[in-house]
Design goal:
The chain is mainly beta. Helices cover 4% and strands 45% of the residues. β3 and β4 (62-68) form a beta hairpin.
Length: 98
Amino acid sequence: SRKDPPEWKVKIPIWARAMVLTGDRLFLAGPPDVIDPDDPRATVEGRDGALLRAVSKVDGATISEHVLDAQPVFDGLIAVGGKLYMCMKDGTVRCWSE
């Protein structure tokens, strides 16, 4: 169990399916944490799209956010050499750089 309280706490409206921590950022990817009353299973089944968000490691503030047209695979995010790679459920691999 944790002895000390967390350094920060922020509600991030994403069902994180993939996360990676870099030197100064935390990247999260997954469907939005919103339930459509007309189609409550849409988020779980991946019909609501997905988001990729970068937040500050220092305070959790949003740095950037991108809408994705496919869902990330579970734990399918890696950062290496200044680039971010994500494996998607549609069989593609995406790459972002600064």
